[in-house]
Design brief:
238 residues; alpha/beta; Rossmann fold; seven-stranded mixed beta sheet; two-stranded antiparallel ribbon; binds S-adenosylmethionine
Length: 238
């Protein structure tokens, strides 16, 4: 699926409240990422949280990693408005492809897979890092939501090793990484799709007639279903 930034912005603008009520997976990976970074370095001067959403992980980051300034940016103005109303932290509406500041930690929890051109986003970000600065991020990788492959067109997720290669090509060094898989159980197929919608994930049903019928019957069924998130954690230096 090609990523259209306007659609991404609209999806997250219209799901702010449901996102904030359904983001336990994102909170878990965000907390894990903070701990992953702290194993290597626990103090930075400036921290930039890109794709910060409603700001709760930015808030945790500001407490868990020593810093003199922290800024959260997001393309969704509604998410930023909610973050600004809840936390005493600087938040701005901005596209992570338009970063102009220099910082020494760029942090991103589950937002970089929304880049239409990840290679160029990673290259631009390198230019916004001070010498010795770090980029730490989580990203869903291949086979995430594999349970939906037969029925829905969903995000194209990279393989972890391709991301590692992309990071080296973009000029980062000392790649620290780990992978983990999180499976969430849903009571019904409909609940699973609703959870994706609530957290801003786009999907479109596969269109052939047989599959649409299958999809329709799944949507009516009361059978439980699992959704798997395969998450990669990366920490790299410039
Ligand atoms: C799954 S949410 C994660 C939010 C947050 N990091 C968290 O841990 O809860 C992904 C976020 O990335 C943001 N996003 C997507 N594309 C973006 C872009 N080009 N620039 C800035 N933010 C972007 C979305 O608006 C959304 O808030």
């Amino acid at each position: 699926m090609r990523i259209d930034k306007i659609k991404v912005k609209n999806a997250f603008n219209s799901s702010v409240e449901t996102y904030a009520a359904n983001n336990s997976l994102q909170n878990k990976t965000g907390t894990n990422l903070i701990n992953f970074i702290k194993n290597y370095k626990d103090n930075f001067t400036n921290i930039l949280d890109i794709g910060c959403g409603v700001g709760n992980i930015t808030n945790l980051l500001s407490k868990e990693i020593i810093n003199t300034s922290i800024l959260g940016i997001d393309i969704s103005s509604n998410s930023i408005a909610r973050a600004q109303s809840k936390y005493n932290i600087k938040f701005l509406v901005n596209d992570f492809d338009n970063i102009k500041t220099k910082t020494d930690l760029i942090f991103s929890n589950l937002s970089l897979h929304w880049s239409p051109n990840l290679k160029s986003t990673l290259e631009n970000m390198k230019g916004s890092l001070k010498k010795g600065g770090m980029l730490g991020f989580t990203i869903p990788v291949k086979n995430t939501f594999h349970e939906l492959n037969d029925f829905c067109n969903i995000h194209k997720f990279y393989e972890s090793r391709d991301l590692e290669e992309m990071l080296f090509q973009a000029g980062y060094r000392n790649v620290y990484s780990k992978n983990s898989s999180i499976t969430i159980k849903f009571n019904t197929f409909k609940d699973a799709l609703m959870s994706l919608k609530n957290t801003g994930t786009n999907y479109t049903p596969k269109t052939s007639k047989g599959l649409s019928l299958k999809l329709k019957s799944l949507l009516k069924s009361n059978k439980p279903i699992d959704l798997t998130y395969n998450i990669s954690y990366f920490l790299v230096e410039v």
